[in-house]
Amino acid sequence: MPSRVAVINPTTLSFAAVLVMTAAIITASAAGGDFSDLHEVKVRGHLKKLNRPALKSIKSPDGDVIDCVPISQQPAFEHPLLKSHTIQMKPSFHPEDVYSGSKVSSNTTKQSKVILSQLWHVNGKCPENTVPIRRTRREDFIRANSIENYGKKNQKSIPKPKSYDPASVLTQNGHQHAIMYVEDGKFYGAKAKMNVWKPDVEMPNEFSLGQIWVLGGNFNSDLNSIEAGWQVSPQLYGDNNTRLFTYWTSDAYQGTGCYNLLCSGFVQINNEIAMGGSIAPLSNYGGSQYDITILIWKDQKEGNWWLQFGEKYVIGYWPGSLFSYLSESASMIEWGGEVVNSEDEGRHTRTQMGSGHFAEEGWAKASYFKNVQIVDGSNTLRDPDGLQVFTEQESCYNVKSGSGGSWGSFFYYGGPGRNPDCP
Known about the structure:
globular; mainly beta; 21 strands; 10-stranded mixed β-sheet; 11% helix; 6-stranded antiparallel β-sheet
């Protein structure tokens, strides 16, 4: 049986924060305070909500501060559905063969290395029974469109292969993708080894990422999505570092969910991996190649969706109660890259996807996903049937698939964005 830890309900802390905020608003109003005063109150309240009291804080070489927060005091339990939640400290089971080890090609020119650490580890580790949480700062809210939207995506963040409309790529702030996907089935998880890079991101409001999507429902108001991978997002993090991330939504990004631990929902149990933390080393063009392994799977006994990083770091889970469609199974899995194309001055962005080079350049030049697998109803990892690929504009970003050997099902993907064929 999975071991469990009782949650100390943070309601008292939250209620106190609300009282402080309310008193400040009343005081500001009585004194003739303006909108900026109220905004400052909101900023302080949200910072207090996100930055929980820590037993230990660690300064990372990249400038991050990692707070080691007691596991029962993490943001997850602010969610209305998790007020009396009992933490599941380990999954009931792993998908078969998850610990079989990494395979590499017998061709030594195509061996890659695995990343199993984060930059903040240089200066310490979090104690047992705590979770590492990247500290949110005042300037993070300044970069965001609003305090309420901080840490959230929009509805254009999901690739829709079936209903693709070529005109959609011309819309302002559109998102573009180069993916492999499988649909019309019952899926209980997904896994892949994904090549990690540091793509150039041209505009502050753009990002570039490589990830897995686990999807249920339709692409309108009720889409359920669980996502994990790596990303470069200056607006979210304030720099151009490559970072590990997660995301979830139960209503097509309309109101629920967020990145990492920036809202309630995802329950972390691991004290070694910080969501949103920088990862290194990174792949370089024509040189050493590095990849990370991401596994998402459903504990069919308890109903929760688990996340694993590498071959040993079980990070935590999304409680099944957060979802409607994903409370049963997923109906589509996607693997691949995404960028924001903000079309500054009517031109396509120069933001790179993957390595910034097209798929046909291949090993050590284009970015890849390999050992692409799904988890089936018998809790077995296997190669998917009926894999397809999709991209909106091949002249900007493309994808080329293959299969066989120790790489199993794989694909190369990416591109430079704006170029003579992608104006």
